[in-house]
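Here we describe the complex-level prediction in full. Unlike the single-chain runs in Section 2.1, the three entities below were treated as one system.
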Amino acid sequence: MNDCCNNCNTCPSADKPMEAYIRALPMETSHHRVAKQKTKCGFGLQGVCCRLCANGPCRITPDAPRGICGADADTIVARNFARAVAAGSGCYIHVVENTARQLRDTGLTRGKIRSEAALEKLAKTMGVAGEDKYDLAVKVAEKVLSDLYRPEYEPMELVEKLAYAPRVKRWKELNIMPGGAKGEVFQNIVKTSTNLSSDPVEMLVSCLRLGISTGLYGLQLTNLLNDVVLGDPEIRPAPVGMNVIDPDYINILITGHQHSLFTYIQDRLLDEEVVAKAKAAGAKGFKLVGCTCVGQDLQLRGAHYTEIFDGHAGNNYISEAVLACGAIDAVLSEFNCTLPGIEPICEELKIKQICLDVVAKKANAEYMPFHFESREADGDRIIDAIVTAYTERRGKVPMNLFRTHGNKNTLTGVSEGSLKKFLGGSWKPLIDLIAAGKIKGLAGVVGCSSVAYGHDTLTVALTKELIARDILVLTAGCSSGGLENVGLMTPEAAELAGPNLKAVCKELGIPPVLNFGPCLAIGRLEIVATEIAEELGVDLPQLPLVLSAAQWLEEQALADGAFGLALGLPLHLGVPPFITGSKVVTKILTEDMVGLTGGRVIVDGDARSAADTLEGIIEEKRKALNI
Amino acid sequence: MERFVIIGAGAAGITAAQTLRELRPDDLITVLSTDERVHSRCMLHKYLGHERDAQGINFVDADFFEKNDITHIPGETVKRIDTAAKMVYFGESYSLPYDKLLIATGAGFFIPPIPHFREAPNVFGFRDLSDALAIDEAFGRGKRVFIVGSGLVGLDAASALCERGAEITIAEMAPRVMPLQTDDYAASVYQKAFEAHGCRFLLGIGASDAVVDGEGNITEVILSTGEHVPCDFIIMAAGVRPRIQIALDSGIAAERAITVDEYLRTSAPAVFAAGDCTGLSGVWPDAMDQGKYAAWNMIGIAERYPKPYPFKNTSNFFGITMLSVGRLDLTEGAEILAHRTPTEYRKAILTDGKLTGYLQLGNISNTGLYLYLVRNGVDLSGRKERIFDLSFADFYGINEKNGEFAYKV
Amino acid sequence: MKRIFIDPSKCDGCKNCSVACMEAHRRDGGSGVCTLDLTDPANVSRNRIVTDGRGGYDPIFCRHCDVPDCAGACMSGALKKNQTTGLVEYDEEKCAACFMCVMSCRYGVPAVSADRKRMIKCDFCVHLEEGPACVRACPKKAIEVREV
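The structure predicted for the assembly as a whole is:
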C-alpha cells in the first residue's frame, strides 16, 4: 500500500484530480490529517491494548505477556474484536429496524409502495400473506421486527427462509444459528465486558453468529424492504463525482445509510409549493447530492428519482471536499459515515447541518427528529431550515466548484434483480461465461474507503489487478464510490480488463466492475451468489467467488466480514482488523476458519500479491468444479 | 618521541597500549608477553569447552597490533628490569630500552601446600591459554577431573569440561559453591545445575594428600575426610597470587603485590604497574581501568586512580545468570530483604539505609544501577519497600549540555 | 557524535518508541508493526519507559556515553566505543555472555537476551538509513537526534 507522500500535506488518492483538488483546499480535511496521525500505536494496531477496566490500559509486551487481570494477548484481542463486531452488527440492525418500521408505517398509513413485485417476492420468501399490499407490507415488516426483538436464546424465524439451505445446515452443525439480532449484540457486549469471557475461540464463534444476523437482516433485508417503498433498482448510466452538483439549486448533501428516513422529505421537495419556496429564495429548486452509502442507495434507485437526485458525488472521504465546494447548503445526515471533519467546514461555509437520527448527532448539527406520525410538520420544518440556510449563505461564501470531476456515464442500478433481468431472466448466461472461462470468477470488492494508507488506492489498484485477470468485480459500499469516480464503472473501462473479460464487456456493453450500490448491498451480492450456487447445485464456498474489503474502515465492516466468513467465502483485507497480537485469533481467522465455514481472512496490503492470492483461490475452486 | 614498553598483554596491558596509541600517535610502543596470543582469561572456558578457537577468545581484533602500530613480542618472559639504565631483559640475551615502563603481569594460580600437588605434572591452573591447552591435552588421556575450588574459575573449568563428558569432582573448603559471590540459596541453585550436568561437589572438604604414580602424577586425591578420589588430572582454582617475581628480581618494591601509589607508580622511576599484579582488584573491568589510568600517568596526564571497588561480579552458567555486588558476607547490624519466585531471587543488604550488598539471580537485565548504589553509598532509606524495583528513573537526571544521564541523588 | 536527546516532560508513556525498537530489531524476517510478535521475549525493546512516580515518565535509553562503563567492563572485546561515530558498538559474535556490561552500566540500560546468550542494547539503528526508529515513532517528539 502506498505510504502518504512526504512532500505534500495530504494523503495520496486513487482519484488524482480529487487529490489535487483537496490539496489545494483552503481548509483541512481527513486527507490533511493523515500525516499527523501517521504514527500509529503498535499495541492498538495489534489489538493488545485493553481498556476494559480501571487497572488499564494494559498492553502486551515480551516483558508483560498478560494484563493485570491475567488476560493474555489472545483474550484481549478476541474481546476487542468481538466488541467491534457486536458494535458493527448493532449499527446494521439499527438500520434494518428503522427500515422495517418505515415499511410498517407506510403500510399502516396506506402510503406509497413503489414495488409491489418486490413486496410479493419478499412475502413469498417469508411465507407471509396479507389482505392487500398495505396489509402485506405491515405483516412483512412485523415479521422482521419480531425476529429482531427476540431474545438471544430464541432463534430468529427468517434465518432458514432467507439463507441458502446448505449454509443453514452447516451453521446448525457449528451451532451458530443466531437468536434475536438485538439480543445477540447485547449478549456479545456482556460477554466481552470486564472479566467475563476469556475464551478467544468462543468469542470468535459468536462473531460468526453476529455475522449471520447482520448479513441476513442488516444487509439483505434492508435492501429488500427498501425496494418495496423506494423502488427496484434499474440499470442505467448516471453521472458521478462532483460534476453532479448544480449551484443553481438549493443543494442538500445526504450522508448515512437509512434512505427510508428521508423518503418523505425527498418526495416533498418536488411538491410545487415547496419548489416555490426555493424559487422565492432565488434557486431553481432542490437537489439531493449523494455522498456515502445513502447516496449510493439513491443512485441505485436513481431511475425513480431523476428529478430530485443530482447524482452521487463520492464516498465518505469525499464528503469534506464536496462541502468545501461551497454549493452545498445543507447536510442531512441520518447515520454514518458522517465524518466529524465536516463540522468545521460547515461552520465556515455556513452550511446547515441537520441530523435526522440521534445516533448520528453531529456536534454542531441541529437534531430535527423525523417521526413518521408527524412527518408533514417535521418535513416542512426541515425544509424551511434548509431554505433559510440557502438564503443566509449564498453570495456570502466562496464557491470552489469542481465541474470536471468524475464522469457522466457510470453504469448504476445493478442488483440481483436488475442484473438477472439484464441477463434475460436467468443466471445461466453468466454461469456459462464463467464455465467457459470468459469470466474467470467473481470478486466482491466491497466495504469502505479509508485514507490512512491512501484514499481508495488499494481498492482501485486491486480492482484493476482483478479485472486484468478476467475476474468480474462486483462492488458495494464506499469502495463503489471510489471505483466509479475513477471511471472503472464506465463501459470504456473494459479496455483495462483482461482479453476475455474485455470481450464479454464489449459484447454486453457493460463495464468490468458492476456497482451494486451501498455497503448494504453486500446482502444483494449474497443473493446473487446463492442463486448461482443453487442453479449449480453447490454450496457457496465452492463458487469461484472471493470477497475483498480492501479498505475496510469501521466496525460495521467487521460485522460484514463476519457474514462473509459465515458464508464460507475468502475475505481479503488490506490491513488487519487489530488482531495480529493474538496468535490464536489470527490463526483461526486466517487458517482454521476454512475447516469451520469454508471462509478465511487474507490480509495483504499489496494489490498485486493480494490479487495473486485471490486469483489462485478462484482457480482452485474452478478446478474443484471441473471448469 | 618516547619509548613505551608494556610487560603483559592482558586487560591492563592491552588497554594501556591502546590508550597510549590514541594519545601518542607517533611514539614507540612495545608489548612483551609470556602469552603466545592475546586472550581473555574470562573466556578460557569457551576455548576449553571447544566452543571457540584461540582467535575466538582474543578480546582485541586480530590485527590489533598492526593496526595500532604497536610492536608485540609474544612468548617472551621478562627476566629483569634495569631501572637505572631503563632497560628490560628477556630471552637469551635480548634487551629493550624504555622511557616509560608498565608492568602488567597479572596474577597466577596458587597451589596450596598439599603434599605432591606442587610437583605433580598433572596439576594445572586455569588462568592462561597455556593452561587451557595443557588441560585440553590431559583431557585426551583421561576424563576424571578433580577441581580444587568452586569459585568462578573452578566452575568455569567445570562447565567447559562437563559439556565434553568429563567426570568431575569439585572440592570446596567453604560450605557452599562460589562462596564469595553467593549466599546459601543462590549457591544451591548453581550447585543443582552443575550436579544435573554430572558434577559432584565435596563441600567443606579439602584435599589433604595424594597418591602418585611412578612419574609423580597424582592418581588419587586423599580428602580431609580420608576418602580417596581417583582422578586423571587436577585443576587448581583455589585462588591467585599477583605475579611479582619481576619486581622482586629488579628491586621494585612489592609485598603480596607490586606496590603502587595513587598514580600507579611503582617505587622505581618511570615504572608503572597496573592490573592484577598490583593487587588492587581482581576483576576485569578494574584491570582495564588501571591500564587506562597508567597510560595517562605515563604520558604525564596526572590522574589519580580512584579506589577500585572489587566486590562485583556476574556469572552465567547453563544460562543461569547472577549479579552479585557489594559485601554479601557483612550482615551484622544489617537489614536483609529478600524476594524469591520460582525463577527469580533477589536479596538486598541494607546498612544504615544504604545498600551494602545486592544479589540477583535469574534475569539480571537492567540491574547495573545496583553497583552504582552500593559503591556510592546512596541513601535509600526512603526507598526500602521498592528496593527491588529501583531503576534509573528513581535518580533520573539529564546533563543538558551533552544529553548524557546524570544521577540525581 | 550524534546522541538521542530526551525531554522526559514530553513523554506520555505510549511506548511507541519501544514498539518501533522491537520492529527495527526483529529477527523473524517479517516487517510491519502489525505482524511483530509482541509476546516473544526475543523481541524485547532496547529502550524502556519507566514511570517517574509523579504521573510522568522517564525514558531510559542508551546514551552511548562518552566514557562507557559497559565497554570498559567488556572482557571479550564485543563492546567498543567507536571513536569515529561515537557509538558504543556491540559485536554479538564476540560476546561471551558474561554480562559484566549489565553490571557496569550505572543507568541500568543493558539487558540480557531471553536465551541468556547476548546482551541487548541500543545500536542507534545503524542498519536504517533514516536513523533510530524510536525517534521517528515518537508522536510527542520527546526524543530527537542531536549532534553533540
